[in-house]
Structures are given as structure tokens and as C-alpha cells.
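Here is my example:
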Amino acid sequence: MIVELSGLRKVYEGKLRVVAVDGIDLNVEAGELFGLLGPNGAGKTTTISICTTRALPTAGRVLIAGVDVVAHPAMARCSIGVVPQYNTLDRSCTIFENINFHCLYFGFSRGEARERTNELLQQFHLSERAGAYPAQLSGGLAQRVQIARAIAHRPKVLFLDEPSAGLDPQSRIAMWDAVRALRQEGITVVLTTHYMEEADELCDRVAIIDHGRILVQDTPAALKASVGGQKLYELDLVDRERIPGIIAKFSGLRGIVTVEEIPKGVRILADGVDGLLSEVVAVANAYGLRDLSITETSLETVFIRLTGRDLRE
């Protein structure tokens, strides 16, 4: 295993005691693209901060390539690349200098640093912007520079904290392509995200985390299959006082897996049974159907089944 977390715990003491990470056990294999998926405040960033030596754990242990990050932080950092949640490029340096100085910091000779910088600029399609400053770049380009800089010293593991936050859809797709390409260099990637489609698209395995604990972990396909349904119906109803009655009626329909109350009405998880939609609408109309949304089963569906609330909350 390239990344090993055992009994990881982080508690912030003060007037309001906060348990940010509450006993996480996690292993990531070399070459894997692993995702920590969960809502804001779930403990994802704190976990990454401990793994990358930016925060100390209250308890537990983290090994990166066999090195204890608390006992030997400097040695561990040689195997770690980090792209934090916010832009940390040096605004007074050009794109070339941001990457070049990173190489020099990690012990490259001037010639090696220049060669590696030019190699990365070409790899990430940034050569034409080598002389530009961070303030002159779009969010997507700046994120590519941050990834290029993070892998400049050839780390074994790259940690990406909310890598597509604030990016437009086109920049997000370009970033996904850049992350996938890292596999060719043998880099293990651990990313945090609250975007379900990002975890589904990129990750070999996903751990869903909430309130500092891992609820479940597996491949995206296996997690989606575990909920037992293919469609998610959300019904906005006028007559909410009669919701217990409508839940009973829906529960009796063929193909319905679960029915639960939500603030606007009810949420139904169902199999892809022919004719079910018309039956759902017919029943709901008797209770004042205002709106109906239908989505395919996603990683958010898994989270809803585990916690009863949306990832967006």
C-alpha cells in the first residue's frame, strides 16, 4: 500500500470542541486513483492536511510510501505532491518560475530544473504561457499549473483537494484529462470532492465520508449497485399532511425499493420497471403533485441511503 491510514483522529479543542476526523482506517494501492467523497465539513480536507504534514493528528498513524508523516515529515514530503483547495501560485513569479523554483527547492540542479520545467509546460500545454503571471490565467489554466508544479519533483502520491472547485465545465473536463494522464507516470492520486460526477468519472475506488467517519468504500459501480435501484424520483406535493398515506400507496407498487419523506414531499428509489412512472404520477396526482424530478442512481443516492440527506447539505 502506498497510503495507509489507521485510527486517524483529529479533534480541535476550544470553546466548541470539534471532532473533524473520527477514527479513519484507509488504504490506497500504488497507481490507484482514489476519491474521498462527502459534503462540505465532512472531514475530507482535514484528512488530506494530516496526510500531507500540514496538520498533526490527535491520534492514529499515516504512512506514505512506508514513511510515517508525523515522525519523519521532511522525508514524507519527498513522496508527496499537493494541490490545495485554493490557488497558492506565487503571484510575483511567472509560470515558468513557479515550477522551476519548486524543482530547485527539491534539489534539482539548475539544468535539471530548467529541463523538467520545460517538460511539464509542454505536457500541460502551457508553453505559450510560460512568461505569464498567475493573475493573467483563467481558473482552469491556473489549476493545471498547480498540478504541474505539484508533480515537478516526481512524487509517488499526488493529493488533490477539491480540484475542480470554482471551475467552469470545460475547464473541469480539461482538469480531469490532466489527472487521468498522471497514471502514465505511475503517480497515485488521492482527491477529495463533493461532486458526485467527478468521483464517478475519475476514481477507481471511492470512500464516502461524513462527520469525520468513512461510511462505505468500494468502486463507484459497486456502490451504485448496492442501493438496489436504478431510478430516483423526487415528488413535490401540495398535500403534505397526507404523506404517510402516499408512502403506504407507493410502497405497494411493483418496482419500488424504498419511499421516504423529504421536506417537499417524498423521495422514491425504484427499479427500472416498465410503466412505473405513469403509476407514480397517477398516485401522486391524487395528493397534489406540484413537480417531479427523475435521476439515475448516482453516488449521491448511496449517500442518501446511508445518511438520509443530500450530499449538497
Notes: The CA atoms of residues 20 and 46 lie 7 Å apart. The chain has a mean pLDDT of 90.
